[in-house]
Each structure stands twice: as C-alpha cells, then as structure tokens.
Amino acid sequence: xxxxxxxxxxxxxxxxxxxxxxxxxxxxxxxxxxxxxxxxxxxxxxxxxxxxxxxxxxxxxxxxxxxxxxxxxxxxxxxxxxxxxxxxxxxxxxxxxxxxxxxxxxxxxxxxxxxxxxxxxxxxxxxxxxxxxxxxxxxxxxxxxxxxxxxxxxxxxxxxxxxxxxxxxxxxxxxxxxxxxxxxxxxxxxxxxxxxxxxxx
Length: 201
Prior knowledge:
This protein is an all-alpha fold and 201 residues long. The chain folds into 2 domains: 41-122, Serine Threonine Protein Phosphatase 5, Tetratricopeptide repeat, CATH 1.25.40; 139-201, no CATH class. It is built from 11 helices and no strands. The radius of gyration is 25 Å and the shape is flat.
C-alpha cells in the first residue's frame, strides 16, 4: 500500500474520531427525559386531545352531555355529566361541569372542578382560560394573571388569551404591560374591545 493511500486512510480515521468526539460531547449536553417523564408527557397529550374532542370517544353519556352543552341546554348537559362523572370519574365530564358552573356564574364551584382538571392536565389551555376567568370574576387577579400568562405562552396567537391578560393587567394597575399586550389584539372579535380598553388606560 503506497504512502499516499495510508495518509488518506489516517486522515479519514482522524476525521471520524474527531467527528465522533464532537457528537458525544454534544449529546452529553442534552438533558434527555427519563422514562417516567416521557410517559407523563404522553399521558398529558392523550388527555388533552381527549378533552379537545369534548367527549368524542368517551361514553355515550359524555358525548350526549357535550352535545347538549354545545346546544346551550345546560341543565340537560349538567345532569348527564354528573351521572358520567359519578360512574367513572370522567375528566371530560368534570371539565364540562366546570364550564357549566362558569356559565351560571358559580365561580367558586367552577374553580374547584377546573383546578382538579388542571392538576390532571396542566397544559390544557381551555382549562387555563376558564380558570383564569373564574378567578378574575372573583377578584383574584394575581392568580388569573398567572393562568392567562401561561395560556399566552402556550398559545401566543390566541387573541382571547391576550385580551383577558390585558384586562387582568389593568386590574393590577400594570398599565404598561396592559397596553403592550392589548396592542397585539388586532384581529377577531376581541380587537374592538381591546381598542376600547386601550383608550381608557
């Protein structure tokens, strides 16, 4: 074997060693999730999708309950969801019951239910929004601020989340933050209300 070919092979081997060392160094800097963390994430995603489907693959009681809820027949929805929750502790039923309490302006009851849903699925944005609104209506603006900020972080394009966050900042006398966030609400049905709030800051 001639010296040129040996030099080429040595150079190639050196390159591969350096590349491998760099790759190992890079991988050591990454915090890989544990098996338990991966399982928790998968469970959370499944629950959030189940709730986003509002009972589409749940029991017949839950499906019917969501149908009545969407039709605005809250009394019928409540009766079905209470039965569904009593039978199997359906998180989807509990979520719906919390929303029904919110619509009936029973904010304390809504908070109790939705906090349980949030503990089960902490990244479910509709739960954050409903909880934030309940706390806001009771004057707990610090807690509602946490929830709306988290909702905006998870769904930065949500004009509803930014509008509620702006309202909350106003009630906390954080007018600069309120103006900043409300200025980003420039589309959808919330834009007009945001503009009116900005004028009064």
